[in-house]
Amino acid sequence: MSRPVRRGLLAxxxxxxxxxxxxxxxxxxxxLSIVVPFAPGGPTDTVSRxxxxxxxxxxxxxxxxxxxxxxxxxLGSNRVAQARPDGHTLLLHHIGMATTxxxxxxxxxxxxxxxxxxxxxxxVPMSLIARPNFPANNLADVxxxxxxxxxxxxxxxxGIGAASHLCGLLLMSRVDAPMTTVxxxxxxxxxxxxxxxxxxxxxxxxxxxxEQIRGNSVRAYAVTTPQRLPTLPDLPTSAEAGLxxxxxxxxxxxxxxxxxxxxxxxxxxxxxxxxxxxxxLIARFAELGTAPVAQDQATPAAHRTFWLADIAKWRPLxxxxxxxxx
Length: 326
Ligand code: ASP
Known about the structure:
Layout: H1 3-26, E1 32-36, H2 43-59, E2 63-67, H3 74-81, E3 89-94, H4 96-103, E4 115-130, H5 139-149, E5 154-157, H6 163-175, E6 180-183, H7 187-195, E7 201-205, H8 206-214, E8 219-223, E9 249-257, H9 262-276, H10 279-287, H11 300-321
Parallel strand pairs: 1-2, 1-3, 5-6, 5-7
Antiparallel strand pairs: 3-9, 4-7, 4-8, 4-9
This protein binds aspartic acid.
Aspartic acid binds at residues 38, 42-45, 94, 157-158, 162-164, 186-188, 204-205.
């Protein structure tokens, strides 16, 4: 082999070796966007803004939150599924990523193959709340009113597959009484309707309800966790309030479009891990009744394992219920 050819090959080999690191070092080259598949002012939005701020500090770029609500989070997911896979457009979504693959049989994207998981973020408890003048003083009263008024009652949710939808389904099945569901593009706008007394009940993450409950602007009946929350010590658990099997919590994760280069996914995951150790983020999460996941869960591998297991957990339950979004 001639010397110039050998040198050329060596240069190519070195380039190949250096490429991923160099790639990651030059990323990001411009502001990033995190698509929230729900309206502003709701729990996914709140978590996303805190994560975006903390990741922005780490990445040295603005991370802008973009709300693309509707169809239980599938419109925003589709937006990211179609985005250029260069790490600048991400999706922050919740448990809906485990239910929509079964609930929606005609999505314009492949609900699993279209995304690269980056890391889990947090698991948020839910709370059952009602409009300020709802005629029930405790969960037993709610159950009685539900059995008596059934579909006359309006239950607000963020669309099929949303956490509020799942929580409502569980409540209705435990109480054995249907309600009329009223879908919104997120529970941010649903909360406004509840505060105005135009819908009756809602089950929502504490990231959206803690301040309203503490300020007595809504009625609150239970948290859907096995233990009471330090942030809402007077609110009983659903089991304490007399309804067993009414437990749900809502996990969140960060995703990039499929084919995003591995070094960029690694850089984003590292940034997410740094964000989840940020004292400002931890303090705000705590005020809202939640905490970041353990560091080893904020990785692509742990996230993928958890996500796929959750899809497998929900699939038979949804299929048995036979209720699909299409
Ligand atoms: N909490 C909503 C849900 O029910 C979504 C949101 O607005 O963040 O899934």
